[in-house]
Amino acid sequence: MKERLQIHKKADSSAYSSEQSQLRCLRRATPTHLLTTRSNQPIVQAKIENQKFQQYQFEATKLQIQAKHGTITAEGQERLTVLQTKMNESLQQGKEHSSQFGHHLSKMAIKRAEIVSMGQIQPKLTIGQSGDQYEQEADRVATSVVNQINRVVSQNQDAQQTTLPGIKNEQAKSEEILAANNSADKKQKFLQEYSLAKTLVNGIDDTLPEDKILEQLFKNFGNIQFQYTMVSKSQDTLLKGSPEGDCQTLARAFKKVAEEYFGIEKITVESIAKPFLSEAGATPHQGKKPNCDDGKRWFFQNHYWASWNGKIYDVLFLSNKRTEADMAKQVQPLKSMLMPEEEYYETEKGKIVYPIVNKYSTVEVAIFEKLKNFVNNLGRFLSSSMSAIVNKIRSLFAQGGNNTSGFDSLMRELEHDKNNAAISNNQTH
After folding, report:
1. pLDDT tens for residues 180-226?
2. Tell me, what DSSP letter sits at residue 231?
3. How, if at all, do strands 276-278 and 298-300 pair?
4. What is the DSSP string of 343-372?
């Protein structure tokens, strides 16, 4: 008997950390002892702490979402700190109470105070020999109690699993609301800073697919009264109310509005880095007409456009096609005294492009080479008159390289002078 009482004391002083420890303890205890030493107080207290913790956690979650998006107030931040302290205290108290009952709060959510129904334990049982009917009855009662505990814990876990999605949904809705509010504030600030952007985003439904938004934004660039000056300006300068610049200005402005106002990512600004000749027509914007061959074609030192998901947005020409380019063979101009400004470019398709003041003109490379060779051969006969000949050639180029009749007339005149010089030279000898 003493041995069994000592075992009873040892088991009663240990924590009920597992099902086996509960069985051993209940096997060695009388019902009277259970009734007098294990009241419902720890369970009730654990339930209260659990409810407090959940309330603190719910309120703190909302404040944490606000802090994440940068919208929390000073009072909210102070309240969040208080809630976190209370949650820690509640969790610690819950651990203390639940450890007295034999379970850790993080592993068991207490929902009922009647987890162990003491009324089911026989009050008339007495301690007898090991294995006697009383011992067997104690084992049966202990097993029943443990089964009740496990069943209630399982029910509470199921209830928690049912409740958690609801909490998560509530959090998701809160995050969506906060995200929408932040997006609206961001857009409002963007329009306040960039006044011209109001025209660019006008009439665009931002719930449309991204490609539809970009297409409408692209078209709205035709409404800003843009002045094409062929001089690059900052996209910020344009968006703040000064709509002038070049193709680079337009492409970067398109990218900025699409990304910062509509939140559309991965827009790139692409370019042709070398000089080239283009047959593109007039732009839909105000400003200069094509700058080469009296408005027939363009000569660009470079060109910029926006691109997204494989689609071209050439904002200068409001075209979704890549600009066709007759590329120059060199980046820097070649030199020739025959040209009005002594500079020219040779293109891959057989054109000579040269500047005349603030415009460009072209001539077929075959004509240019013929003139150049003719002058070189003529020089040995008319060295004293070379300056006059060069000036005549420059004058013809300045009138436009496509004036082939003028070049033909000059070459006949030079040929005539060459023949006269040869005759005169023969007579002298």
Report:
1. 677 788 999 999 999 999 999 999 999 999 999 999 999 999 999 99
2. S
3. antiparallel
4. EEEEBTTSEEEEEETTEEEEEEHHHHHHHH
Q: Bigger pLDDT: 364 or 144?
A: 364
Helix (H, G, I), strand (E, B) or coil at 268: strand
Distances (CA, A) of 402 to 148, 245, 293, 300, 372: 103, 31, 8, 20, 16
What is d(CA 327, CA 343) in angstroms, rounded to the nearest whole number?
17
Determine the angle formed by the axes of helices 404-428 and 386-398, rounding to 10 degrees: 170
Is residue 290 within 8 A of residue 281, CB to CB? The reply is yes
User: SS3 for 278?
Assistant: strand
Is residue 43 within 8 Å of residue 113, measured between CB atoms? yes
Closest among 279, 274, 270, 283 to 230, alpha carbons compared: 283
Share of the chain above pLDDT 90, in %: 38
pLDDT category, 2, cuts 50, 70, 90?
A: very low
Rounded Cα distance, 120 and 138, in Å: 12
Edge-to-edge strand list for the sheet holding 326-327: 298-300, 276-278, 326-327
